Amino acid sequence: MPFPTERPRRLRENARxxxxxxxxxxxxxxxxxxxFVSEAIQGSEEIASMPGQYRHSIDSLLKQCELIMKAxxxxxxxxxxxxxxxxxxxxxxxxxxxIQKAVRSIKQEKFPLVIITDVCLCEYTSxxxxxxxxxxxxxxxxxxxxLAAAALSQAQAGADIVAPSDMMDGRVQxxxxxxxxxxxxxxxxxxxxxxxxxxxxxxxxxxxxxAPQFGDRRSHQMNPANRREALREVTQDLCEGAxxxxxxxxxxxxxxxxxxxxxxxxxxxxxxxxxxYAMVEFAASHGVIDRQRMIMEILTAIKRAxxxxxxxxxxxxxADWI
Length: 322
Fold this sequence. Notes:
The chain is of the alpha/beta class. The chain has a domain at 27-212 and 227-246: Aldolase class I (TIM Barrel, Alpha-Beta Barrel). Helices cover 39% and strands 18% of the residues. It has helices at 15-20, 58-71, 98-108, 140-157, 171-181, 202-208, 228-240, 254-263, 274-285, 291-305, 315-321, and strands at 31-38, 44-46, 54-56, 75-81, 114-119, 132-134, 137-139, 161-164, 190-195, 244-248, 268-272, 309-312. Helix 3 (98-108) links the parallel strand 4 and strand 5 (114-119).
């Protein structure tokens, strides 16, 4: 109907009306908080490229978990930084690896948190790549056994969800079989299904010391130009046994999140990554944005696009604002 009969502003007149007809509601249950835990430090150590984010020792991690629990956040995802790295990333699947020790410590404290563990080799390898390197090529199939071993080790330590982020073909199937064979069939897999070879990962790589020592990750992470390929990757991961699928990064890929959400009937996660975090913090430090409003707008946009779960370094503050 034409103006003046049709007046959309009627429902925007005051805050109560706007809340009443709001289409997207962000809640604490939507948020997952990423944490870095390191064998090489005592206490906590701020990450230079991610002000306000820290590498934690296990003692510091437990203190942080208490704050997260009190903020009402239900889930965390852990990234491990071993004291020593080697060509095969043995720290990822060692019984007493840093992630395994961290998971057991959190469980011992009985924090009511869903513990998700990142399954990849890049934080643990001396060359910084996500798999077994032969020459200057990543051997996909040789990597699967190690990823399955890492996921199994983390699940045996008590991880509630394992999250393969490597983008090797067949990794979800290999992990699902390893878990099922060990009678851990109830442990879900949250697959980084559409993980793009993005420029937004720089601060994370500095935080975890996982930058490749040669080449890049374009042979296995997705081309940022591709949309249909993401749907193919998601479909394959679901066929192999994934319980949750993820799109990473989030902000530059809102269209992909929406297409995945429309296609699948499982939970969809999106990772609001380190570079997205760093851009907000840089702009805020120069006084050119309203920091709180921008953070909440970004998180709401990711949910509006279709994400059920949002991994974000701003999650702890956002939970307080919510």
